[in-house]
């Protein structure tokens, strides 16, 4: 049996019911609504000899960027590979990309999905997996361009809004904030459940220092994208950043407790957002109580993963926050081993992950000179270990605090001035500038 899906893609060995199940799971995944894996499991149970559902499942688990899912991902990949002889070229493109990912070649896998999307521009899964790969790799312009390639093929097609939402995020990461906001808002008019599009607009407001608007925007759109969302925790993280920029640490902590922690930090991406928020509060000197302990078990279970240096740095934040020197040493040793290995993550660990972990550990020990020595040289190339501009801002945040605590007036002034150039009305940045001025006044006294 062969059939064609909503977007004109041939699906090998599939019954009409299997194709309908794949379509429904794909649209859920595009919207980041729960639970596409459960849906695809039901499809596989009904027709286990169809290659594409297995590739779908493996792709979702791979791009979760969490080694905890590796066993299940490999099981699905091996099932897809066993069925590859009956797959078509498009499906074999997915399978080949997944094998590259499983072998540690994240950049090769992302490009393989990208090539599949070039050949089959209405293959939304290939587009989305490549988009997530570009995010994981810090490929800002490819987040934009890989989506721009396929947009003309999606006019009027089911899911057009999701492609626009991805394009909006790519435009934002490429610095085209006006276009990003326009496209992101258009995506939300086509599908109000599109949490990724809402997230793209939130990024625009974060990067342009529009915290009050950001709070209002997230609150206004949340009733549409938050129910059933697998991604809501990250949009709540953005809301917490807006409140923190305005000096409202109490509301940021409430969001941590009630919303960001909603999934109980069961996956790495949730742990990342939990660490990223608590670290910013910690660096500013706000007490966070025992909240670091809510992240401890999750990060300790992943301390030896060596799969994604971006995650490792966020684990280090938690270990520093906990004051767990043994965990810090163990993590640094593991990241050092990763840096000596092969594959995409080895490059990430060498270029950014290892010095970043050393710098954050030094900050936690009160060795601000060493923190600056480790972090300042890597800030300009931090995109090499993935994430967004907003996420990587933690480097500038930490450096600004380190410079102030060190009493390095020129560096503190430079960091505050740099931040004010991007966000001149930010209360947080203005507070940093005042602290820098106070350092100068103290020295002049």
From TrEMBL:
Domain of life: Bacteria
Keywords from the UniProt entry: Repeat, TPR repeat
InterPro entries: TPR-like_helical_dom_sf (IPR011990), TTC38 (IPR033891)
Family matches, as PANTHER family: TETRATRICOPEPTIDE REPEAT PROTEIN 38
Family: Belongs to the TTC38 family.
Protein name (Swiss-Prot/TrEMBL): Tetratricopeptide repeat protein 38
